[in-house]
Amino acid sequence: MIRTEHLNQWYGNVIALNDVTLDVGTGITGLLGPNGAGKTSFMRICVGLMRASSGTLTVQGEDPWRNVAHNLRTGYAAEHDGFYEWMTGLSFVTWMLRLRGRSTKDAIEGARRAIERVRLSDAMDREVGTYSRGMRQRLKIAQAVAHDPKLLFLDEPLTGTDPLVRVELIELIRSFEREGRSVIVSSHVLHEIEALTSSIVVFHRGRLVAHGHIHALRALIDHHPHQVRVRTSRPRELAAALARDESVADIEFAGEREVAVRTRRPDEFYARLPKVLLDVGCDVEELSSPDDNLEAVFRYLTER
Amino acid sequence: MNPTAVAALVSFTAHRVFTGKRFLALGLLLMIPPCLAGALAMAARVVPGVPFFDGITFALSLYLVLILSAMIYGIGLTSSEIEDGTVGYVFLAACPRWLVALVHVVVTGALLTVLTTASIAATYGLSSISPAGLGEHGPSVIAADALIAWIGLTTYLAWFVLCGYAFKHNVAASIASVVVWEWIVPMIPNRLGAFTVIVNLRVIWLHLVQSGDPGRWFRAQVGYDLPTYGDASMFLSVALALFLALGMVAAMNRSIAGREAG
User: Fold this and answer.
1) How far apart are CA A44 and CA A2, in angstroms?
2) Which of A20, A118, B20, B97 could form a disulfide with B251 if both were Cys (CB 3.0 to 4.6 A apart)?
3) What residues contact residue A143 under an 8 Å CB cut-off, 6+ apart?
4) Which residues of chain A have pLDDT under 70?
5) Residue A210: its H or E element
6) A49 and A166 share one domain
7) In this structure, which long-range contacts are made by residues A287-293, counting pairs with CB atoms below 8 Å and at least 24 apart in sequence?
8) What is the DSSP string of A118-166?
9) Residues from A in contact with B at Cβ < 8 Å
10) What is the CATH number of the domain that holds A231?
11) Do A41 and B260 touch (CB under 8 A)?
């Protein structure tokens, strides 16, 4: 659906995208990376607002730059909060639909549907300038989806929203996928992406550092020690026993009652751990593996 | 090209002229000449015999007000929208970018001309309170002034749109270029003045309103010969066409990075 080859984007001396070669399929794909990683630049190039400095890009088989037909097949909700503040929510979405070639009647109907979809109907006759951050995020999504595009680009759609709105927006974005749309959604908050999809693209300082399913990413970093934390009443005895295990790379104490173990062979380690615990005769208050969540993968990938 | 989208773009551009703080600022600007004319007319009843309509039109309506109006809308509808990111909504519409720039200049220019002409007509009406206020002009002078306003507004708008899309620091480029080239250069006796829009507009004005006589209106520009009417017409035509064409090309090639690009 999106294919890039050696894509580069420069702002003067600053590299926003550095030799990005990528193939993104259908469904929800999360763009992950800290602020300044290149996510927004990538999205803006994909929607046709920016032209890449060099390299090639096709979205749904076409170059999006100056491609009016592409505009009609894609929807884009920018991260920035730029609106025509004096418009009402309804008139804003209506104008956006009219600018995409809908008749006034169709545009009003389509705008009402889209606003209802993002649950903003109660406020649709208010000026956008009076909207809260969450309402503005919903409105951006409404204008992005109103013309029924097959491909949606949502740049940081959950930023600044409260937990309740966040849950609703996550469900809304998932519903787009169920309707057969593909969604590219960016975030610098790891659990947001994790809640939306397991298909991720990780950017850091303009470079593509990882791409694929979260489990595939985990395989990519096999040489990265997997960390397991065991909270127990007898940490010293447990550490001594684990030190003799060949699958353990190193051990350290993480607090008075916690042992942090790094292993390069997590499968072997998990298979042996119950026996070690039994041999030592220690209770286990908590067993956790920070590396199992996206945060650890992300941290490792961006710091290596 | 989708005709419904083009019609919507025209309508949207017109809609934006009449809304927001820009329109308030324009309204205040356009009220200055008639208010001044009204005040002078009242004073002229006491001290009769001073024609002032031409002076107000020449020095205010077709100079200060005209340039500032074009600046407010030219910068506001390009540079400001690039800065706040709203231009992205228009650029992702079903119209090519060059058309967005063209419609912006043509529609905004036409509407500003109508509003400026209304201001000039009001100035004319209030000037007529004093019998001498109009000089020897009949109402047809309003049409001549409207034509000059249209040429001037459209040319300046085209320039501001070009600056907006072509330059990174577009607001600074827009303001600096006009302040230096259109306000300072014509005031200094040198040949460059003949290559400014405002001097050529004034030549057209002198031809249409004053039969080509510079008289007292060009006392400040004694250091160079004024262009002829033909040269001024040619200069303004070329300038408008050039600014418009380059503005459309710049719009086609403008990347909208946004403030949060990264």
Assistant:
1) 13
2) B97
3) A75, A77, A92, A93, A96, A114, B89
4) 215, 217-224, 291-299, 301-304
5) strand A207-213
6) yes
7) A287/A228, A287/A229, A287/A230, A287/A231, A288/A228, A288/A229, A288/A231, A289/A226, A289/A227, A289/A228, A289/A229, A290/A227, A290/A229, A291/A224, A291/A226, A291/A227, A293/A190, A293/A191, A293/A194
8) TT-GGGTTSBGGG--HHHHHHHHHHHHHTT--SEEEEESTTTT--HHHH
9) 11, 16, 35-41, 44, 47-51, 66, 68, 71-72, 76, 78-80, 82-84, 86, 95-96, 98-103, 143
10) 3.30.70.100
11) no
| pLDDT one-digit tens code per residue, A204-257 | 888 998 888 876 766 666 556 778 888 888 888 889 888 888 888 889 888 888
Task: Read off the pTM.
Answer: 0.83
Identify the domain boundary among A219, A235, A255. Answer: A219
A52 and A178 in a single domain? The answer is: yes
B247 against A210, higher pLDDT: B247
Residue of B2, B19, B260 to mutate for A, most A C-beta atoms under 10 A: B260
- A169, two tokens: 């927006």
- Comparison of pLDDT for B211 and A211, the residue scoring more: A211
Question: Strand A74-77 vs strand A151-155: parallel, antiparallel, or unpaired?
Answer: parallel
Domain containing A163 equals 2-219
Total domains present in chain A: 2
Q: Among residues A196, A219, A242, which one ends one of the domains?
A: A219
> In this predicted complex, what is the ipTM?
0.85
